[in-house]
Structure formats: structure tokens, C-alpha cells
Amino acid sequence: MKYNIWVRAATLLWSLSITAAQDAPAPYMQVPSQRQLEWQQQELYAFLHFGPNTFTGEEWGRSQSRPDIFNPTDLDTDQWAKVLAEAGMKGMILTAKHHDGTCLWNTSTTAYKTGNGSWAKKREQDGFDADVVRMAAGSAKKYGINFGVYLSPWDIHRDPAMPKPGLKGTIYDEPQIFGDSSPGDYNALYVQQLTELVTMKLADGTPIELFEVWLDGASGSDTVQTFNWTGFRDVIRQHQPNAVMWGHQGPDARWVGNEDGFTLPTNWHTISRTQDDVHYSGEELEVGVRDGQYWTPAESDARIRDGWFYHANEPSKSGAALMDMYLKTVGRSVNLLLDVPPDTRGLIADMDAANLKEFARLRNATLNRNLVTPDLKTSASSVRDGDIVSYGPAKVIDGSNDTYWTMDDGELTGWMEVDLGSSFCVDGFIVQEHIAFGQRIGRYEIGAMVEGSTYRAVVSNGTSMGYKRIDLLEKGVETSRIRLRITQANAVPLIQSLQVLGSRNCTGPL
What we know:
The longest helix is centred in the first third of the chain and has 20 residues, at 2-21. Helix 4 packs parallel to helix 6 and helix 7 packs parallel to helix 8. The protein is built from twelve helices and 17 strands. It folds into two domains: 34-367, Glycosidases (TIM Barrel), CATH 3.20.20; 377-503, Jelly Rolls, CATH 2.60.120.260. The radius of gyration is 26 Å and the shape is elongated. With 510 residues, the protein is of the alpha/beta class. The protein has helices at 2-21, 34-40, 53-56, 77-86, 118-125, 132-142, 186-198, 229-239, 282-287, 319-327, 350-367, 388-391, and strands spanning 44-48, 91-97, 146-151, 212-214, 244-246, 254-255, 270-271, 294-295, 298-303, 335-339, 377-380, 405-406, 414-433, 441-450, 454-462, 469-489, 494-503. It comes from Apiospora hydei.
């Protein structure tokens, strides 16, 4: 009995000591919300610009064509979702209303909608749904990808500065309420449209679930319209609390600063202005602000073709070009929103689909070659409180998003190693910071052991780590051990993951 009491007491003391030693590092500066974390993990998804511009050859819809112009011959939103899912894309964002003002859903706010065109009327007569937004959302759900909407704040159809001679005398000749000096309240109209979208129900009666709402700030008019951004955001938060709101600089995600599918090597997840403040320049947004006041990670909106809408004479980017774009966005901790516009048939074009398929093949061939497995031996310069169970370097290779290697507070530099078990040809790395507690790391390098016991730096210019960094080598190196060194951080670094890419030897092609 005395022995059992002693054992219980010792066990309790040991448990208490372990509990005390497992205090996690405090969050550093700004940290992401849960919806921002989940959004960041999407990494790659599609933009679908589709509407009257698809048939008029325009980008902004200044012609103000009647809804009859919208006439896809073989519209199949299932094909969109299937092509995108097979390409490894995690979602799609549809232009529910672009700048021209035509609504792709059965809105009650305007007659200027595809539902009033001959295509939709014929489809409904045949017993089919003609609400393009609802159809696309249902297809996304069917194929297991996320769905989002783009609703343009600028509305040419309601803008008195934009001529509309072709609509005069028709039901589409509607009041011009866009602009602070115009009669009526455009913000109220926009709130109605937004509310319809965020409360939409699918054909089976289930509520729509949005992962992102795109609030574009572009305008090609001199008309001054003060938008009620706060009211718009309140509607989204109320009905779609898990949806990330994209704007030039937030509130949840920001523009990357260009539309060319790249960001600079250094990119911080924080900035120090909101959507309601004076806008940063594109160059400033490409970098962000280290230790900024708001967690506002970047999204890169780019195109598979030259324009946003489908134009038959434009080339489609090759799989290799898309792979390069991916490495310069997702590989630098920025989400990639790739525009893949449906054609006049209402399908993703055959060439675009083929290039997306090749893009997926290249990603898999390049990135799905991780040599690290959870059973490998690891070591580190130090471990937080000596607690290797909770914070040891093995946490970096356990495959979990919730664990990490870290050191004691105040230790801003350090290293961890992975023994690969035998010699491999290593030609790339994927590293991730545990951003749930903030972005801390400003510089890192990766070394490979060569010539017995000497480490040679093969990645020497690692910068802002953040959510994910992909570093590919120009030439593979034969090695059996890898060392990740943190050479600068503003708080104790937290390393969530290290993947080592390679093959058995360097004699063949990489």
C-alpha cells in the first residue's frame, strides 16, 4: 500500500512538472482568425469570369447589351467543377455581377439579369434551372470544392456617366442611382444584392456556404460613389461568418499588388491599413508590413489567358508557365486565384482544361516527393524547456498542422536537423512556420551535409517564412542529412513543417 501511494505521488509530481513545462509560446503581434487559417490552406483556387462580356468580347461591359446576348450553347457548371477539382484546385469564385451590372442569379433588385434573356427562358421552359450562381454553387458542392462569389461594387448599368443607348425604352432602362449626387441609394441596392447571394439556397434547399467574397474596388468612371463598406461587411459576417472577405487591403485578405501571378521574395502576412484607409501602392502590397497592425495575407489574382473573360483569339498559358506562377505565389506564402473563364459554350475551354491538367501533373511530379517520414531521427540546437515530447524537432516531421518545434523565449536563432537514413539526391524543400501564433521569422537557410560531416548551405537567402515556402534547387545534391537554420526572428521561432524533396540518386533527370 505504501509503495502504491509513493508511486501515485511521484506520478502526480511528474505530471505537474510536465504540465508546467508545456506552456506554449505567447502569440506574437497579430494572428490569423480561424477562417483566415482555413482560407490560407486552400492555396490554389479558380476565378470564373462569365457573363455578357463572354459573348461581346469586352472586359468591362460598356456596351450595355441586353440579356439576350448571354447565350451559352452547352452550359455545364458540373464540367467547371470537375475540371477544377481534377486539377487540384480547392474552390472557385464566380462573377455573380461584374462591372456591367448584369446579375447571373435570379435577383429581385433589377431587370438587368440573365434570367430575363432568351437563353434562361428557354431553359426554364424545358424544366431546367437557369440561375447560374445557384447552379455553380451546387456543382462545387457536388465535386467537393469550395464556392465563392464576386459582386462588383461599381455598376455601369446604374452609373449615369456611362451611356446606354441600346437600353432606352426597354425594361432595362432603369434609374441611374450610382453616385453620391444621384437620386436613390445605390448602397441599399448593393446590400440587397449581397444579401440575396449570402442567403441563397441551393436546388436541394440547403443554404449556400461561401469560403470567400470578392469586393473589387475597381472603377472606370468619374462618378463618385461612397461605398458603405462597413454595412457590406456586416451583411457578410452575419450570414457567412466563415467567408473571407477580399479587398484591396482587407479586411481578411488583400491584393498582392499585381495581376501577373507573382510576389516578391519577401512577403509579410500583415499590413497597417484597413480597406477604409488610404490605399497602399501595388509595390507596397507585394511586400506587406512586417509586424503590421492587421493580419491581412495576400492573394494573387492572375489569369490563364490574357484577359479575364474568354476571348477566342487569346492563348492559354502552358502547364509550365502555370507552375512557375505557382512557385512565385503559393511558394512564397501567397494564395493563387487563377482565372479560368468559361467560353461561349459555357464550358472551360479544351485547351485551358488540358493546361490545367498538365499543371497538376507538374505540381505532383515536383512536390509530391517528400523524403521525410515521421520515423526519421531529428535533433535541434535546443528545445523549449527541454520538453521534446511537446516541442521537440520530431514535431516538424509528424505531419500535423497543430504541432511545431520551438525553443525558449528569447532564443531567436537556432537549428534543427533531419537524418534521412541514407543518401538521397535532394533538390527542394517546403518549410512552414506555425502562423497560428503569428509571423516571426525574417531569415532562414537550409544546409545539406556533404563530404562526411560538413554542412553546405543550399538555400542561403530564405526570407519571410510565413505560411509556406517552396525552395527548389537548380541542381540536386547528394546528402543524408538536412539542417534548417533560423538566422533571424523577432520572437522565438515556431517551425511547423519541413519537407525534403528528392529521389534516390542524382544520376538521372531530376
